[in-house]
# Entry
Amino acid sequence: MSVSSFKKLEPEEYLRQHYQQGLRPDGRKGLSSLRPVSISVGSISVADGSAVVKQGDTIVVCGIKLEIAKPRAENPKQGFIVPNLTLAPICHPQFRPGPPSEQAQTASQFLHESIVNSGIIKLEDLCICEDKYVWCIYADLTCLNYGGNILDTALKALVAALSNTTVPKVNVVEQENEDPIIKVDLKEKREPLELGAVPISCTVSVFDDKLLLDPTDEEEECSEACVTVVLCKSATTENELCHVHKPGGSAISPDKLHQCIALAKKNSKTIQRLIDTASSSTIK
# Structure
C-alpha cells in the first residue's frame, strides 16, 4: 500500500506512527514545535491598521476600521471592539457558502473574549465625549488559506493589526443646550492606538496520551480535543492566564489541562518575540 493510500484509509494510524518517532507529518521534529510564522503589518493602505499572518499553511489577513458611534446607556464612557472572522469556501473545502459557520462564529467570540479579558484595549480610552460619542473598532479578519489552528493565527493577526492602528485627532465643540459637535481633523498627525497587556494564545490538541502544539487541520480532525490557552504579557505581569477555550471534543482531565497550560507558557516567549518584531516594523 502506498503512503498516500495509507494516509487516506488509516489517518489516525498514519499520525500515530509519526508521533511514536517524535515526528510530525509536516516535517516538524518534536511534538511541541511550532510551524514557521511570519507577520507583516500595514499592507492595506485604506485601513486604519492591518496585518497579514502566515502560520504554516494557515493565512489570515486583518483590517481595522474606526467609526464614531453612540455608547451604550449602561456604559456611557466605553467604546466598542467588534472582531469578525470569515471562513469562506475559498480557504478550505470544509466551509460552505452562506451565513457564517458555527466555527466562524465561535472563533469571532473567542477573539472578542481574548481582547476583553486581556485588557489590551481599555474601552474607556475609546471615549470621545461621555454619553455622546465613542470609537468603535471594527476588526475584519479573513482566512485566505486554512491549514489548521485558526484561533492562534487569527489572534496574532488581530493583535498585530491593532499595534499598527492609528487614531485621527477629534475636536469636540461644545454647544449650549445642544449636543456637542465633533470634527475629525485629517490634517493632524494620527496617534497610535494605546495598547495594554498583549494576549498570546497557544492551541494544543490531545491525541491518545500525547499533546501536539500548533496542530494542522489533519491533526485537528483526528484529535480527541483541542485546547486554546490565552496568556497575557504586560510591563508588570507575564504569562498570566486570561482565557481557556475548548470547543467540544472529548472531556480531558484537570491534569491534562494543566499540561496544556504549562506547554503554552513554555512557548509564549517565542510567540511574543514574533509579535514584537512585527509591531516595531509598523509603517503607518
